[in-house]
Amino acid sequence: MFAILPTGFPGLAAAVATMHDVDLGPPPSYGSLAESLRASIAANRIAGRKVPTRIVRQLPYAYWLDGEPCITAVEPDLVKSYWSSYLVDAVKAGPRQAKRWMLPLFHTYCDKFAPADHTFVQYGSNLGAVTETRQSFVPSPLIQLQALFAFFDPAEVARRMAGALLIHEGSLEHWLKANSLWEEFPTSALGDHVLDCLLMAPPEVLRNPKVVEKIIDWLSSEPNAISSLVGPHISVANSLLHAWSGHKAPEATRALMIDYFLRRYGDPRSERQLHFQWRGVSSEAIQVLTSWLAGEALRDFMNLLVETADEIWRFRSKFWMAYYDAGHIEDAWLVLGADAYRIAARINGRTHGAHYGRLEGGAAPNQSVLILRIGGLIFTEWSHNGSLRAVEHQDLLAPKLYQSTYHGQDLRDIPSMDFHRGSLMRKELRHAGSQSGTWQRTARDFIRRNTGIVMDDAEILCN
C-alpha cells in the first residue's frame, strides 16, 4: 500500500542516535536551596494544598539538610509519590522533561554521596532502577555511567571509577568529558571516595608517571590549599610519596610532585609547616620529599657555580651527585649571598618560590654555601674555591640545616674534622687537583672512614 521508504536518512539517524546525549553539566549553587524547598513543601502540606510540580521536581536537593532528618522521615508520603508516580511519568514524557527531573537526582547523588548511610543506599537503588525503566527518555550519559561503573550502587561506583581512570590512556580532563562529568566533579563527595580508591592502588601503579599526573590533576581541582586538619591530606602524602621510597622518580614526575606538595602543604623543612600542614604524615613519606629537595639544592648549587664561572663546577657536580644518586645524601640546604640569591631566583623561576637560606654578612654577595648531611656528618661546601669542611652531626657546633639566615664567618669558624689524617696543618679540604681526582679521592676516603659508604673512582670522577 505504501511505497518503500528510503533507507538513507543520515541526518535523521544521527538525531535519533544522539537525542539522549545531553550535557549533564555541573550542579547548581545550592546555597539555602534545601532549606527553602523544605519550607515550601511544609507550608503547602500544612495549608492542605498540593505541592507544585516544580517544587517536587527539585525534591532531591532537599533530601539531606545538615542537622535535620532525611526528607524520607519528614515527608514520607511525598517521597513515596515522587519515586512511584511523579518521576516515572516524567522520564516517559520526553527527553527534555526526563533531563529536568533526572539532573537533580544525579547532582544530589554525587554531592551527598554517603555509602554508609542506609537512606542514601536506598536513594541510589531507586535511582538505578529508574535508569532501567522501559520506554523512558533517561539521558543516555546516566545510562552509560550505570552500565560502566554500576554508578548508582554506592558500594561499587568509587572503586570501578578509580580502576577505569588508572588504566585510561588520556588525561583526567579527557576522561571526565568522555564520561559526561563536569570539571569540578573531583571535589564532590563521590569524587572524594574515588580519590580514596585511587590512593589505595599498589605502589607500582602509583609510580606510573601518567597515574601521578592524573591524581595531581584530580587534587588540583580544589582551588584552595589543603589544611592539615581537613580533607585527605594525610593519605595523599603517604600514598603518593611513600610509593617512591627506594625508587628513583623521573625528573618530570619529581618536579610535578615537588611543586604540588610545596604549594599545598608548604616546605616540611620548616618547623612550623612540619608540625602543621605535615602533621600526621609518616616520616618515611616526608623523607622522600626532603630527599628530592636535597637534590634540588644540589642542582641549584651546581647551576650557580656555572653561572658564576666556577672553574671546577663539573668536578664538584660529578662528585656530589654521585652520592645523591646512590641515596647517601639525606639532607641538603643551600645558603646564598644577596647577589647569588637573585641569580638563583632568576635561573630557577619555580612557581613555588625559592627555598634558600641567606648569607647575612661574612661572605661576598655572590658567594653560596651548600650544607649537606651524609650519615652522621655535616659538610659545608663553599663556592668560589672555598674549602670543604666537615663536622659530626651531633657536635653542638655543627651548623643547623634549614635556618633562614647564616653568617659566613660563623660557618668558617666551626672547627673542621681532619680530612688529611694529620698530614697537613689545616684540617679542611681545598679543591686542588680536580683533573687528577686529588680532592675527590681525599673526600671519598674521608667519607668511607667515617660512614662506611664506599664509592669507586668511576662514580665520583669525571672522564
Characterise this structure:
The chain is α/β, with parallel strands linked by helices and 463 residues long. The protein has three domains: 21-155, no CATH class; 182-281, no CATH class; 295-460, no CATH class. The protein has helices spanning 10-18, 33-46, 53-57, 71-74, 76-93, 95-111, 118-131, 140-149, 157-167, 172-178, 189-199, 203-206, 209-219, 233-242, 251-265, 271-275, 283-307, 313-325, 338-348, 408-413, 438-451, 457-460, and strands at 329-336, 357-359, 368-374, 377-382, 388-392, 405-406. A six-stranded mixed beta sheet has the order 5-4-3-1-2-6. Helix 17 packs antiparallel against helix 18. The termini are far apart.
Low-confidence stretches: 1-20, 225-230
* Biggest pleated sheet: 6 strands, mixed
- The class by helix and strand makeup works out as alpha/beta
Please tally the β strands and state the result: 6
End-to-end separation:
93 Å
Q: What radius of gyration results from the CA coordinates? A: 31 Å
What is the strand content?
5-15%
Number of domains: 3
- What series of H and E elements makes up the topology? HHHHHHHHHHHHHHHHHHEHEEEEEHHH
**What characteristic shape results from the CA principal axes?**
elongated
Strand order of the largest sheet: 5-4-3-1-2-6
Residue-averaged pLDDT:
89
Task: State the helicity in percent bands.
Answer: 40-55%
Number of helices: 22
